[in-house]
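Task: sequence design from structure.
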C-alpha cells in the first residue's frame, strides 16, 4: 500500500508440509477382543503450530498446508481438526500427488518464498527449501 492505494502485490507464501508438525504413532487395537488390527494415532505438535503462527504473523507471510499422502477431502478434515484445537496458522491447503509434483510447480508460483519440510527432502526444493530453524 502506497499513499492509500491498494497494492496488487501477491502476498508472500510459505508452503508447510504436514510431516513437519504431525506425530504418527502405530498402535494395535483389537476388534471383539480377539482380532488384532494395526492402526495409527496422529497427533499434532502444538509448539510447532504456535511457532508457525507467530512466524506468519511477524513476517507477514501466508502459510499453505501441503500433503503428499492425503487427498483434498482428508486434508480438509485435518484442517478442521487443527482449527478445533485453536491455533491454525494455515489459510490454504493443497494435496499433491508426490514431492516431484510440488517441485515441478514451484517455478510457476512467484508468490512462494519457501517450502518448509523435513531435512531429508529439503535439497529437492532448491533455493525454496526452508529448515525448521529458519522459522
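Answer:
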Amino acid at each position: 500500500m502506497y499513499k492509500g492505494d491498494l497494492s496488487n502485490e501477491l502476498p508472500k507464501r510459505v508452503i508447510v508440509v504436514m510431516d513437519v508438525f504431525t506425530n504418527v504413532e502405530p498402535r494395535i487395537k483389537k476388534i471383539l477382543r480377539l482380532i488384532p488390527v494395526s492402526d495409527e494415532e496422529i497427533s499434532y505438535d502444538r509448539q510447532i503450530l504456535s511457532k508457525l503462527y507467530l512466524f506468519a504473523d511477524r513476517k507477514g507471510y501466508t502459510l499453505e498446508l501441503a500433503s503428499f499422502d492425503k487427498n483434498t477431502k482428508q486434508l480438509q478434515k485435518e484442517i478442521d481438526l487443527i482449527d478445533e484445537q485453536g491455533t491454525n496458522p494455515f489459510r490454504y491447503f493443497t494435496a499433491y500427488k508426490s514431492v516431484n509434483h510440488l517441485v515441478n510447480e514451484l517455478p510457476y508460483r512467484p508468490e512462494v518464498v519457501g517450502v518448509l519440510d523435513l531435512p531429508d527432502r529439503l535439497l529437492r526444493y532448491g533455493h525454496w527449501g526452508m529448515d525448521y530453524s529458519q522459522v
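The chain has one domain: 13-134.
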